[in-house]
Amino acid sequence: MQNSTLYPTVYVLGNGQLGRMLRYAGAPLDIYVEPLAFNAPVFDLPENAIITAEIERWEKTPLTELLGNHKNFVNQHVFGLLADRFTQKSLLDELNLSTSPWCLLKDKTQWNDIFQTVGEKVVVKRRTGGYDGRGQWIISDENKADITDDLFGEVIAEKFIPFDYEVSIVGARFKNGEKRFYPVTHNLQQNGILRYSVVDSAFPQQSAQQKQAEAMLSKIMDKLDYVGVMAMECFVVGDKLLINELAPRVHNSGHWTQLGCSISQFELHLRALLDLPTPELQTFAPSVMVNLIGTNHNPKWLNTLFAQLHWYGKEVRAGRKVGHINLSHPNKAVIIQQLEKLRTELPENYQSGLNWAIEKLK
Predict the structure, then answer these.
(1) Does 125 belong to an annotated binding site?
(2) Any binding-site annotation on 44?
(3) Could you give the C-alpha distances from 88 to 76, 79, 247, in angstroms and in order?
(4) Has 133 been labeled as part of a binding site?
(5) The model scores a pTM over 0.90
(6) Distances in Å between the alpha carbon of 131 and those of 20, 82, 247, 322, 331?
(7) What is the CATH number of domain 165-361?
(8) Interval 312-324: pLDDT, tens
(9) Which CATH number is 101-159's, of 2.160.10.10, 3.40.1480.10, 3.30.1490.20, 1.10.1740.10?
(10) 55 known member of a binding site
């Protein structure tokens, strides 16, 4: 693909599936997007190039040192701040945004105080790294010895929240402060990995949650002077949202937008980076996203009505995200029918999640 005749090249730190989907979201608009492996050779960066990232942290290489500290790296200051759960949670506290009670876990002398002031059961999380359920421990007084001495100072302890369900919102901020938001999305995580997302404007709390989530994410993006797409994952407890995680990038829970909205989250990110005219986001039907985790490709998936398969071309390994399937249709019964078809084409460990998604649509 030749460089764009209209726009500067957008370089992406990281060449996984998110960078890949940014690349082909840019093609129809003649936006040239080049995802880069961390170990790719250094090159002369065009003066007007724009740099973004598909991941919060990256290994130190000559290329990441060049791009990660370049003046054209949009939101450069945000990635390190949000990649560290200590500074991320500190930001939420500074902005008086609801999140689970927490503290930095420095040494074992804190345990009694933590169980009294934070919670009798806590989730201990690595400050950096550790995603999709890795680097996290559920701890009470009985198993506190599971947190070994080498972890102290490198983890935070959050109150264990018995939430009703999980949601997320994906939105974007433009250079002039204008924002665009997708509908609040209901998510199912299993073993710490997102497995399903469902979007439906008819959900009982949708309107109130949308208003609450947009206000919270707006406050964060404004404080950071952020430009581009950001995702916010929340626990729902009664009528209240508690922020769980922030991601300064396109996000797995926004993949449904590729089929369920006229502008996908990937295109939206590029539009914001390049400051392009962008209408309000409109969804026209309920949507479902099925994450494909450690599952071999099945050609039968291609014979699913009102669906879109994204296969990442990665080696299939247990617990690895290798693709996803989006489904969207104005009639929820049609989506349910296609999910029932997929049920026969997906392994046993998908069945409970399919039940969850189908129940959400009823």
Answers:
(1) yes
(2) no
(3) 15, 10, 10
(4) yes
(5) yes
(6) 20, 13, 11, 16, 35
(7) 3.30.470.20
(8) 999 999 999 999 9
(9) 3.30.1490.20
(10) no
